[in-house]
Amino acid sequence: MIALLIRDLRLAFRTGGGFGLGLAFFLLVAVLVPLGVGPEGGTLGKIAPGILWVGALLACLLSLDRIFALDFEDGSLDLLATSPLPMEGAVAVKSLAHWLVTGLPLTLAAPALGILLNLPPAGYGWLVLSLALGTPALSVIGTFGAALTVGLKRGGLLLSLLVLPLYVPTLIFGAEVVKRGAAGMEVATPLALLAAITAGAAGLLPFASAAAIRVNLR
Amino acid sequence: MEMVVTDLAVARGGLVVLEGVGFTLRPGQALVLRGPNGIGKTTLLRTLAGLQPPVAGRASVPAESLAYSSHADGLKATLTAAENLVFWASVYGTGTVEAALAGMNLLSLRDRRAANLSAGQKRRLGLARLLVTGRPIWVLDEPTVSLDTASVALFAGVVRAHLAAGGAALIATHIDLGLDEAEILDLSPFRAAPGAFAHGPDRGFAEAFG
Amino acid sequence: MSIWEYANPKKFMQTSAWLLPWAVGLTVLCLGIGLIWGFFFTPDDYKQGATVKIIYIHVPAAMMAINVWVMMLVTSLIWIVRRHHVSALAAKAAAPIGLTFTLIALVTGAFWGQPMWGTWWAWDPRLTSFLVLCLFYLGYIALWQAVENPDTAADLTGVLCVVGSVFAMLSRYAVNFWNQGLHQGASLSMDAKENVSDVFWLPLLICIAGFVLLFIALVLMRTRTEIRTRRAQALMARERLA
Questions:
Q1: Is position B93 within any domain?
Q2: Under an 8 A CB cutoff, do B202 and C7 touch?
Q3: Min distance A138 CA to chain C CA atoms (Å)
Q4: Is B38 helix (H, G, I), strand (E, B) or coil?
């Protein structure tokens, strides 16, 4: 499993693209929104939690179709399926690799973009914490979507259509944490629910994803 | 470490292509599958490898004993030849890749990226993966595609060494490998009658689709 | 004879052919009585005026939008566990009907909301939940369309339906948490204080029965079509092979 993680990370670094693309997209969202909304700091500060969360979510979405597509095309998914590695484990490792390459950099970059969007000072800690807790769920759910659409010729758009409704609870609780944190309200409830969704998704969804992969390889 | 296949039927795209397939593969034995294009060689091999369920019959393969190699090599273009093999070696929990590299005559290419290998060299690297699996039963789908005669002879030698060490090989191929000891199984007699539908336990469906 | 006999396509075709005229007839009867009674023979609400009559379409459609998804979940589970093709095809047949009910509920809700709340749309939890449900239906239908092999499609959409159901429940809860909302409480429930008043109650109940029957009639028709399509595809595949 560790070998698979190392291989996926190495591939991501060598190929480039996947790694920086999500971050660049996230930055673009944070630049374009003020251009569209107007420069008033009050308005921007109010919508910053939502914009940052939606931006992170869309940046995550961008690289989902690459999770399995390349392995499917070159045949290594077949070989992985016949290897002693359980498919559930392989899927979980792929989610982890996707998070390390997309979710983690987005989390670390978010405070800088918070400054651009005039996020109130109280919100920064909650922003990083909520993204750190929530983006793993985005990767795990996205892996499920990628598993469903692997092997489809034009799966990219379908993947977004399948995954976005599944992102709703994570988005709501994640943005709620930042919104409440920035306003100085208590955040324990949404934070606990966000963590629960991530834990539940990480624990159960790999089984569904592995089942979908097996069906698609048939 | 015997593979026993009895009365196996396999399907592609919901249609049964082969039925009644039966054979036994013993240690030290090589079996070459023959048959025209589209008869279902790949489907049969994928079924034996556990990638798809059989429609009927059974294939008893000792657990953790089978190594499958498909048309595609499963190589990562941005990894070097050695890195590609090291990955599979650690997945299968076997140690070194040196013997495999040497076996397929790839030592001089070990640090070259797979993207910069020729088609034949890639194929050799793909086959070297079999050596690092440490599995006794090899299930090979057209292993010699894009290999030149020298490489085919090299590969035949590798298979022969594998058999001598108590391994077995099931090979679907059109060309003569030069493995004189290999038995040949022609799949043509097992071609399924047209109209046989694969609908699992739901027999009523086939009936309604009569 | 076990209930699974009806999952045999041949048996299903026979039974549904017999059942279908009854379902259609009862649908016409129930919807006719319920809607005419509701529209012409009930008083206007003292606050809402005549707009209240939209309840006879809005409430049944909204209830069915959710019930259809539950039916799809059950049939998907039957397919996953017992591999009955009719079950998978029934789920496939039901999805566009469910989507239509969802859209009807959203559109009639907008027509009702405009005079009542002064807005066509509000990000109220119920409205938002239905919008999310609409997206779930779209994704489910799109996956059926995208996958060529029917058995693969049935497996993948089945898994999506099960996972989607869990996330739909989570979304419902999350949306409630996110905004408390304008929407009135349940129109029908065991708790008498919440219920709509008695004059509206009986025609509404008949309309709901009518919508249930309408769904049964439509799903039987569409499942029959799906089974025939599968049969035609199978025969064509055999022709090509022979």
A1: yes
A2: yes
A3: 13
A4: coil
Question: How do residues A17-67 score in pLDDT, each as one tens digit?
Answer: 566 788 889 999 999 999 998 888 888 888 999 999 999 999 999 888 888
**Nearest alpha carbon to residue B67 among B154, B174, B169:** B169
For B23, the 3-state DSSP assignment is: strand
Chain B residue whose CA is closest to C240:
B194
Domain residue ranges of chain C, discontinuous segments joined by +: 8-241
Q: Measured between alpha carbons, how far is B190 from B8 in angstroms, rounded to an integer?
A: 10
With the CA atoms of C238, C239, C240 and C242 taken in that order, what torsion angle do they form, in degrees rounded to the nearest 10?
A: 80
Is the CB of A81 less than 8 angstroms away from the CB of B51?
yes
What's the gap in Å between the CA of B71 and the closest CA on chain A? Answer: 8
User: For residue B59, which of B39, B68, B193, C155 has the smallest C-alpha distance?
Assistant: B68
Which two tokens mark C90? 């029934």
Contact A168 C159 (CB under 8 A): no
ipTM: 0.90
pLDDT tens per residue across span C94-132: 999 999 999 999 999 888 888 877 888 888 888 889 999
- The Cβ-side half-sphere exposure at C181, using a 13 Å CA radius, reads 19
pTM higher than the cut 0.80: yes
Domain that holds residue B99: 75-135
> Which residues on C lie below 8 Å from A161 (Cβ)?
135, 138-139, 142
- Whether A215 and C155 lie within 8 Å, measured CB to CB: yes
Helix, coil or strand: residue A122: coil
CA atoms within 13 A on the CB side of A104: 9
Does B205 contact C at CB distance below 8 Å?
A: yes
CB within 8 A of B67, min separation 6: which ones? A82, B130, B133, B135, B137, B138, B139
With 0-12 / 13-18 / 19 or more C-beta atoms within 10 angstroms meaning exposed / middle / buried, residue A124 is middle
Q: How far apart are CA C72 and CA A208, in angstroms?
A: 18
Amino acid found at C105: A
Is B188 part of any domain? Answer: no
What residues of C are in contact with residue A165 (Cβ under 8 Å)?
Answer: 132, 135-136, 139, 164, 167-168, 171
